[in-house]
Write a structure and sequence with these properties.
Length: 46
């Protein structure tokens, strides 16, 4: 599985900064959030 178009880094900024930041596939910021969301859904369905 690949998670494309994840913003690199977590620097704060305005909207324009957030939508124009470089993107990467499988950046840990997006991958970690995805795993946490899957765990939460699994717990709800258990």
């Amino acid at each position: 599985m690949s998670l494309p178009d994840i913003c690199i880094g977590t620097s704060a900024g305005d909207y324009e900064n957030n939508v124009t930041r470089p993107r990467s596939a499988n950046d840990l910021h997006g991958g970690g959030a995805f795993v946490m969301a899957c765990t939460a859904v699994h717990r709800l369905n258990a």
